[in-house]
Amino acid sequence: MDWTAWCESLLDRARAGTPLGLWEELNKDFYQAFIQEGRWNLYLEGIGNTLKVAVLALILGVALGLVAAMIRTFHDQQREERPSLLLSFCNALCQVYTTVIRGTPMMVQLLIMAFVIFKSSRNLVGVASLAFGINSGAYVAEIIRGGLMSVDAGQMEAGRSLGLSYMQTMRRIIIPQAVKNILPALGNELITLLKETSIVTVIGLRDLTKAAQLVTSKTYGGFMALFGVALVYLAMVMVLTWLMNLLERRLRSSDR
Q1: Angle 237-109-233 from CA coordinates, rounded to 5°
Q2: 3-class DSSP assignment, residue 207
Q3: Among the four 24, 134, 168, 249, which has the fewest Cβ within 10 Å?
Q4: Helices (H), the chain
């Protein structure tokens, strides 16, 4: 008898009221949660949607965060005798953006994005990616700004004294040094972003957590499905942590 047939026989025994041992109960729960009726496809679809939202949101968040951080850093470093009204206005917008986004719950932002701004859209992955990207951008902006400000001010002065423009100095001297300082914080932001995507269930997107909820509603037992999903999240976080540690070692080796 193969494993599938054996699990089906356990289900028949359970329906008949025959007592099962602990190992048999676990096998029955595993079969119901992952194998029966091809339910593993739900988890695969959920993993795909989770990674799509996380990756797209990360790209958008880094782009927004970099722009906001550059504007705020440039504003802080501008000469007092030559104030720029346009730069001051952009800096004020960036401050409002980071304050509002960091001061309101992520779930509320997601609900506003899905049921108010894009209420007629059926592209839930795009809506969720936009909401998470805007949210992540506010935190990434402060991370990058902190990294840029951590570089000694003499580095900027040295670059400008060599005839480089502000943007050339930032691109060739400041940013390469700042990347090494902000990489751990950016890695933590990516991990947090990946885990926070689990709340997209509130707008109906079938992510990994939603897959577990669907299976639980069919099997009336959430132990195996929820613990299985937790292990999948843990595995993805461990892979990301390993990749970030590898990248950090590569960057540290370049200093030697």
Answers
A1: 15
A2: coil
A3: 249
A4: 3-15, 22-30, 40-77, 85-103, 106-112, 124-150, 153-161, 166-169, 175-196, 208-219, 223-253
With 0.90 as the threshold, say if the pTM is over it.
no
- Whether 68 has a pLDDT exceeding 70, the answer reads yes
What six digits make up the tokens of 78?
Answer: 């501008």
pLDDT recorded at residue 1:
41
Tell me the residue length of the chain. Answer: 256
For residue 156, the tally of other CB atoms under 10 A from its CB is 19
Radius of gyration over alpha carbons of the chain, in Å?
25
Distance CA 52, CA 56 (A): 6
For residues 147, 152, 155, 161, the Cα torsion angle rounded to the nearest 10 degrees is 130
Q: Give percent of the chain above pLDDT 90.
A: 36
CA distances from 23 to 5, 96, 226 (A): 16, 56, 18
Measured CA to CA, the distance from residue 195 to residue 94 in angstroms comes to 26
Q: Is 107 helix (H, G, I), strand (E, B) or coil?
A: helix
Distance CA 24, CA 248 (A): 45
Q: Above 70 in pLDDT, residue 26?
A: no
CA 217 – CA 71 distance, rounded (Å): 49
Return phi, psi of residue 135, to 5°.
-65, -45
129 is written with which tokens? 């990616």
